[in-house]
Amino acid sequence: MAARLSCQREKGSTVKVSIIVPLYNQLAYTKGCLEGLRRTVQPDTEIILIDNASSDGTAEFLATLTGVQIIANTENRGCAGAWNQGVRSAAGEWLVMLNNNVILSAGWLDGLLGAASRWGLDILTPAIREGEYNYDIESYARELTGSMQNVLRRGKANGVCFMVNRRVFETVGYFDENFRIGQYEDADFFLRARIAGFHLGTVGGSFLHHFGSVTQDALKKARDPKPYAIENKAYFIRKWKLPWWRRALVRNRNKLVNWFHSLGERMKYGHTLMEKWIDGKLHYE
Between the CA of residue 202 and those of 55, 121, 162, 226, what are the distances in Å? Predict the structure, then answer.
């Protein structure tokens, strides 16, 4: 069951972009994400927040907001379920699935829209730095996107943030809600889209910071009695009929391709499209 509060839209108006943000606790990150959205996107950008039965004051905070759509669930429907609710409610031609534990740089959305048009992409992800937030994002983003505007990793997208053209959902359907809570629903969707002939990519003209798997880590610490991550992996393997040797081939191929991308990008630009701060050091992926 879900109850929805919707902001008013003028009759006949069109929305180019809808941003969909699932929430489950982590109120401090949600506040930071919303501040970033207000700072970096146009006022007419549609923002849809789906609260998966948070218990940390998120619902009370959301009740104070204006100018956004809020979907309040009475149970945790997981990432796939929340995304689907957002997609069904959205009016945009482009739909952005965004984690709440991010910091957004100026121009990140325009960078995605420009890259989609330039390269004919249907699903695309910005460059991401992950881990401790120990740098100035605006100067870092200007440097990275300024030098990497022409960089594209074809076929790659990331569940932290990805923008999807509505026609993808019209063709391949919604996210598979058999993936419970979170994990593998994004990989499954990207695979279905590639098989259907849609074009995916990670682009250097847009940048954001991701703190890491905050919600997933919190769920693990809470000792969720059912190992949903293991169940989701098993379901993904069954669904796509992936024996161990095929999974190994795909995994090793991806590692090799990523290594070549990372090496070339770092040598030419001093950055890569995926960077992680781990144990006091920046790693390039």
Answer: 34, 10, 9, 33
Average pLDDT per block of 10 residues along the chain, 285 residues long: 37 71 96 96 94 95 95 95 98 97 97 96 98 97 97 97 98 97 95 98 98 61 67 96 96 95 97 96 95
- Alpha-carbon distance of 50 to 23, in angstroms, equals 6
Question: Judging by DSSP bridges, how do beta strands 102-104 and 69-73 pair with one another?
Answer: unpaired
- How many angstroms separate the CA atoms of 174 and 145, rounded? 31
What gap in Å lies between CA 167 and CA 22, rounded to an integer? 22
The greatest distance separating any two alpha carbons of the chain, rounded to the nearest whole angstrom, comes to 55
CA dist., res. 168 & res. 177, Å (int)? 17
**Distance from C-alpha of 38 to C-alpha of 204, rounded to nearest angstrom:** 22
How many CA atoms lie within 13 Å of 2's alpha carbon, on the beta-carbon side? 20
Write phi, then psi, for 215 (nearest 5 degrees). Answer: -65, -45
Q: How far apart, in whole angstroms, are the C-alpha atoms of residue 52 and residue 280? A: 34
pTM above 0.85, yes or no: yes
Gap between the Cα atoms of 86 and 162, Å rounded: 14
Phi-psi region of 188 (alpha: psi -120 to 50; beta: other; left: phi over 0): alpha
Composition of the chain by helix, strand, coil, percent to 5: 40, 25, 35
